[in-house]
Amino acid sequence: PPRRPSDLLLRGTFDGAPLFVLLNTAIKRIDHVLLDTHVTLSIRIASPTPAGLTTEAEAEVLNGMEDELVQELGDEGLFIARETTRGRRVLHLHVMEGGPAAAILERWRERHPDYEIDLQIEGDPRWQILDRWY
Q1: Three-state secondary structure call for residue 87
Q2: Rg (Cα) of the chain, in Å, rounded?
Q3: Is the CB of residue 21 less than 8 Å from the CB of residue 82?
Q4: Pick from 47, 69, 30: which is nearest to 115 by CA?
Q5: Nearest of 34, 41, 43 to residue 61 by alpha carbon
């Protein structure tokens, strides 16, 4: 279920596998013009179900990790969405290029050594990541 009133839970398939997306529908680029960089954190699910999704227990752990990161980033970052499919939980955020978010992201990643977490950072001043869901 959605976790914030502005969250929208989308359900579908991707390459034949179940896909769940939690999308923050309250965000507006105009309110966050300095957050011009898209961050993708791809977390390998430790114990995926046969369908490649999280168990309820692991979802709680991953949700807690996500909440912790969003709180630590504060105004330095913005949660856009998360996808769960094919044995991965993927978080999408926007941060300011050259700001303190990179160090916050790295410290967060280091605090979770039980998970394989891939980090990608790329410029996205037009927030084209949103085209993925709209």
Answers
A1: coil
A2: 14
A3: yes
A4: 47
A5: 43
Using CA atoms of 10, 73, 88, 132 in order, give the dihedral in degrees to the nearest 10.
40
Could you tell me whether strands 77-85 and 37-44 are parallel, antiparallel, or unpaired per DSSP bridges? unpaired
- Joined tokens for residue 72: 């630590």
pLDDT digits (tens, 9 = 90+) for 32-68: 999 999 999 999 999 999 999 999 999 999 999 999 9
CA distances from 124 to 36, 70, 82 (A): 5, 19, 17
Residues 88 and 43: beta-carbon distance below 8 Å: yes
Section 116-134 average pLDDT:
94
pLDDT of 36:
97
